[in-house]
Each structure stands twice: as structure tokens, then as C-alpha cells.
């Protein structure tokens, strides 16, 4: 899951070298935290959060195949 989010985030931003994706277990859920450069934050979130919602939908679909719950947090 981490690799999927990392590829998507790096494709969206101007500074892909500053994208940091971490993964941690939080109870029964897997939390994926995405950190990007301050100037790229808008590109990852999108207007009214549309891109962030799309990223979460793609990850949720991929996680459903593995019967996992995944939370994507953009920091």
C-alpha cells in the first residue's frame, strides 16, 4: 500500500524528492501518512479535497482485495 501511495503522490507534485510516505499499524487499521513540500500541499489535496479523496478511494479499493482497513493521512 505504501508504494502505491508514494507513486501517486510523486506523480502529482513538483518536488517528488520531498515526498515521504510512512506506514504504521494502529489497532486493526493500517495508517499511511503522506508528507509533501509545503508548496505541493495543494496539488495533493486538490480543490475541495477531490484529489485526496480519489487517492483514498484507490487505496481503499486495493486494501479491500486484501481484507485490510487503510487510512490515508496527508500531513
Structural descriptors:
75 residues; alpha+beta; GMP Synthetase, Chain A, domain 3; three-stranded mixed beta sheet; 3 helices
Give a verbal description of the structure.
43% of the residues lie in helices and 27% in strands. It has one domain (2-74): GMP Synthetase, Chain A, domain 3. Strands 1-2-3 form a three-stranded mixed sheet, with helices on one face. The mean pLDDT is 94. Strand 1 and strand 2 form a beta hairpin. The protein has 75 residues and is of the alpha+beta class.
Name the overall outline. Answer: globular
For the terminal residues, how far apart are their CA atoms?
17 Å
Corresponding CATH architecture: 2-Layer Sandwich
Q: Output the helix-strand order.
A: HEEHHE
Helical proportion, percent range: 40-55%
State the domain count. Answer: 1
Radius of gyration: 12 Å
For the secondary structure, the number of strands is 3
Question: How do the strands and helices of this protein lay out in sequence?
Answer:
Layout: H1 2-12, E1 20-26, E2 29-35, H2 41-45, H3 50-65, E3 69-74
Parallel strand pairs: 2-3
Antiparallel strand pairs: 1-2
Task: Briefly say what this structure is.
The chain is α+β, with helices and mostly antiparallel strands and 75 residues long. The chain has helices spanning 2-12, 41-45, 50-65, and strands at residues 20-26, 29-35, 69-74.
Amino acid at each position: 500500500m505504501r508504494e502505491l501511495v508514494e507513486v501517486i503522490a510523486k506523480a502529482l507534485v513538483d518536488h517528488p524528492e520531498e515526498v515521504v510516505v510512512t506506514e504504521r499499524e494502529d489497532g486493526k487499521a493500517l495508517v499511511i501518512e503522506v508528507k509533501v513540500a509545503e508548496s505541493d500541499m495543494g496539488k495533493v489535496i486538490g480543490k475541495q479535497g477531490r484529489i485526496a479523496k480519489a487517492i483514498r478511494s484507490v487505496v481503499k479499493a486495493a486494501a479491500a482485495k486484501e481484507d485490510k482497513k487503510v487510512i490515508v493521512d496527508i500531513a
